[in-house]
Design a protein that fits this description.
The protein is mostly helical and 288 residues long. It has nine helices and four strands. Helix content is 47%, strand content 8%. The longest helix has 32 residues.
Length: 288
């Protein structure tokens, strides 16, 4: 004999909050990355990059990107990770919030201590080098901007083409021709000392850990493997100087608009185009 009766009800689905749509992203398996095997494969394998380096600078740069990319795909392959918002657990009560707040306070104190130690060490390392010191402190002096950009890439390109380039051409159309006189150079540069692997290693050690989406491997990996990659990068620089050729692959860049000042209006005229280049070019630019 049953003492239960059937109960029916209707629910409005719109009153329930559904989790946000998941996003599929690709990430490398850095936890499984074996650096020693990566370097050994780069050294001992029959790689054109290290053993039989191409003489042509275009082939050398292509070999640099293709070899490092293939090795990175082998030792740190990309995997698809689906990220989605999860609702709060109902068991998260006052005790959980109190424990979380205490842990958050300890974490904040640790972060503050780490930040103080980092900037103290950074400023001390730039002692006597005002240029390096200013480049480090500039990140602290620049205000953070949370302005939402509603402009498209076509809007920015239209501004630079129609309002800047065409306006400059129109302003100088009626100008008289400029007389340019040659300047005599007392000492001509006849020879250029080749780039050495030691110079490249020093530049890599001083360069910041910045990277571009076009880089075949992260910058920290290039810095860590400088003993193997420094001779290759030196060969790239020397081949480019000797052959008077700049590879097309190195001319590619990711252009992003950057607001000139946070107090300016959000329009096309308030942005400047910043080209994000490969980290390989930073070593070559320092030599030039």
């Amino acid at each position: 004999m049953s003492y239960h009766s059937l109960t029916t009800a209707e629910f409005n689905k719109a009153s329930f909050k559904t989790p946000a749509d998941s996003v599929l992203v690709w990430r490398r398996k850095w936890r499984q990355f074996d650096y020693d095997n990566f370097i050994n494969k780069l050294k001992l394998s029959r790689s054109r990059l290290v053993i039989n380096t191409p003489a042509d600078v275009v082939e050398l740069v292509d070999c640099y990107d293709e070899t490092l990319t293939s090795l990175l795909d082998e030792f740190a392959p990309k995997q698809a990770v689906r990220l989605k918002a999860r609702p709060s657990a109902p068991r998260f009560d006052a005790d959980c919030r109190s424990a979380w707040q205490a842990q958050f306070n300890r974490q904040r104190e640790l972060f503050q201590t780490k930040m103080i130690n980092y900037w103290t060490t950074t400023i001390d390392s730039c002692r006597g080098n005002s240029k390096a010191l200013w480049s480090k402190l500039q990140t602290l002096l620049e205000p953070q901007s949370n302005i939402v950009i509603d402009l498209t890439a076509d809007d920015l390109a239209r501004y630079f083409v129609t309002l800047k380039i065409e306006r400059i051409r129109a302003s100088i159309a009626a100008a008289s021709a400029t007389n340019i006189s040659d300047c005599a150079v007392p000492d001509m540069l006849h020879d250029l000392a080749p780039v050495t692997a030691k110079e490249v290693a020093i530049l890599l050690a001083k360069s910041p850990v910045k990277q571009c989406y076009l880089d075949p491997v992260p910058t920290w990996l290039v810095k860590q493997a400088s003993d193997v990659l420094a001779p290759v990068i030196a060969s790239v620089c020397n081949a480019s100087f000797q052959q008077v050729t700049f590879p097309i692959r190195c001319k590619q860049a990711i252009v992003r608009p950057l607001l000139k000042k946070c107090t300016m209006d959000v329009n096309a005229a308030s942005y400047q185009r910043i080209s994000n280049l490969q980290s390989l070019l930073s070593v070559k630019d320092c030599r030039e």
